[in-house]
Amino acid sequence: MQIKDTMKGKTEFHELHKGRVNMFVCGPTVYDIPHVGNSRVYVFFDMVAKYLRTRGYSVFYLQNITDIDDKIINRAAEEGSDYQAVSDRYYSLYMDIMKSLGIDSVNIYARATLYMDEIISQIQRLQDLGYVYATDDGLYFRIRKFVDYGKLSGQDIDHIEAGARVEVNEKKEDPGDFAVWKFRKPGEPFWNSPWGEGRPGWHIEDTAITECHFGPSYDIHGGGSDLIFPHHEAEIAQMRAISGLPILASVWMHVGMLNINGNKMSKSLKNFITIDQVMRSHSREEIRFYFLNSGYRSTMIFSDAALKESSETLKRIQTTYDKLVIKAGGRASLYADRQGISQKLQGIMDNDFDSREFFAEIMKMTTEINRAIDSMDAESAASYLGIFNWMNSFMGILKEKSDEGIPVKLVDDLISLRNQMRREKMFSVSDAIREILFRNGIILEDREGVTEWRRS
RNA sequence: GGAUAGGUGGCAGAGCGGUCAUGCGUGGGACUGCAGAUCCCAUCUAAUAGGGUUCAACUCCCUACCUAUCCUCCA
Question: A162: pLDDT confidence band, cut at 50, 70 and 90?
Fold first, then answer.
């Protein structure tokens, strides 16, 4: 398998422990409703985890939940409740949304506040090694002591414009130094530590969590491309300072942003559309396909038109799939892929999860199937169906229709009655039968003198 | 100012040193009592501009211009 690493470019993937992939993806800060842009990252890595599993890897997918942070505290203050009420509410909302997007590949959602001992232990070790110093408002990491700081993002510390966005804190040794522990301010939640009451910095949560589950290094680290600097640089600096190892993660994968009207969709710009809003008018499958049918690293332009367009495309795949189900009598065969199509598709996916190219190939296959379906035997249909099912096991873009509803025998009988009416040119009756079946979830299609049907 | 990723047909969007994906849209055709679905054909001699390398560049190199993201809140 080849995976494109943010720093090294496309490289052959070698897992650290044979057959095992430890993957960590930056999860949300639970202070608000997730928006569409956030969802893209989680849908993508859900696919990655599932695909790697179909390739035989035992994947441990770990995601953090930042449940203590300035924004959570601010939110709690705004609404006059406490931070736990806020983080609990948005955590469970996040989980609901993940569920409705079909994201079920994560092994552990790790809440930062449950790892306070590990966080304090990391800070302690960093301090013992001389990487951390105290000011009157917190403990900071000396970025200049860690020589590789900036390597991931290609940044040169001396060219970083201090205060480009955030006010310079004069008490720090270097404007780039970041907090690993923030001392308690009046009214804020706090934990005890050897340095006094306070709470952890943002970056230390993740390294504490990953060290706890994976140790000092692991295979894949994923997240949105806006986290490359400084968040992921900080993680690398913290963990490698402690471990002395040459890497934190073997591969760094970053998913592109979602743009809306020429700008990044973000909470601070207030130009975001929440995912539950989109889910009101689009199915889980449509949303997943929309994200997955594009290169994961590119910026995506979000619009209703684009979403609608990709839904049209998906409908073609779904319709073909439904026809195959009927043709194959529901029997799928994974081992009858005589043309080696799934092998070809796998080769495409093995090339840095090239889902865009993958779907281009799926569309070609769809056209071929549609061309041949009328004269296709059940065995071939079952073989194609096997490919679709395999694809769906990691893409999650097809609805599997249940056999519930009107029994097949009754449908067949009604169709022959309707066709008799048609022969007798009693079209009002035949159309009425079609309409009744439609209202009961059966779509009829007359082709080449034969009436085919499928469940809607 | 620095860093990163890009600029492809009406639109969205890949890959690739020669054969120019894929989808959507639009127009036409086939099949149909109608509808739907599907197939076929067309839209297509697409590549920000200017240089260079090459037998050959959309693909590699250089310059300019433009866009997005990051420069310590962000997925």
Answer: low
**CATH number for position A197:** 3.40.50.620
User: Do A251 and A294 lie in a common domain?
Assistant: no
> Pairing between strand A218-224 and A249-255?
parallel
Comparing A103-107, A357-361, A376-380, the range with the smallest average pLDDT is A376-380
In a domain, A356, yes or no: yes
Confidence band for A164, pLDDT divided at 50, 70 and 90: low
ipTM over 0.85: yes
Domain that holds residue A427: 408-455
Chain B: positions less than 7 Å from a protein CB are 1-5, 11-15, 21-25, 31-40, 67-75
- Residue A270: the pLDDT is 85
Same domain, yes or no, for A239 and A298? no
Report if CB A337 to strand B is under 7 Å: no
Q: How confident is the model at residue A135 (pLDDT cuts 50, 70, 90)?
A: very high
In a domain, A183, yes or no: yes
Q: Which residues pair with A60 in a beta bridge?
A: A22
Q: In this structure, are residues A139 and A133 in contact, taking their beta carbons and an 8 Å threshold?
A: yes
* Neighbour order of strands in the sheet with A178-183: A132-134, A138-141, A178-183, A198-200
pLDDT of residue A161: 61
Number of domains in chain A: 3
Query: How many Å from the CA of A452 to C1' of B28?
Result: 27
Kindly state the greatest CA–CA separation across chain A. Answer: 92
Are A214 and A303 within one domain? no
| Last residue of one domain, picked from the residues A353, A368, A395 | A395
Determine if strand B comes within 7 Å of the CB of A222. no
Q: Give the span between the Cα atoms of A351 and A373, in whole angstroms.
A: 31
- Considering the domain architecture, whether residues A31 and A98 belong to the same structural domain is answered as yes
pLDDT at A248: 96
What is the number of other CB atoms lying within 10 angstroms of the CB of residue A269? 11
The pLDDT of residue A67 is above 90: yes
**CA distance linking residue A18 with residue A26, whole number of Å:** 24
pLDDT digits (tens, 9 = 90+) for A428-451: 999 999 999 998 889 898 877 788
Q: Is residue A339 part of a domain?
A: yes
Is residue A260 in some structural domain? no
Are the C-beta atoms of residues A254 and A231 closer than 8 Å to each other? Answer: no
A446 touches strand B (CB under 7 A): yes
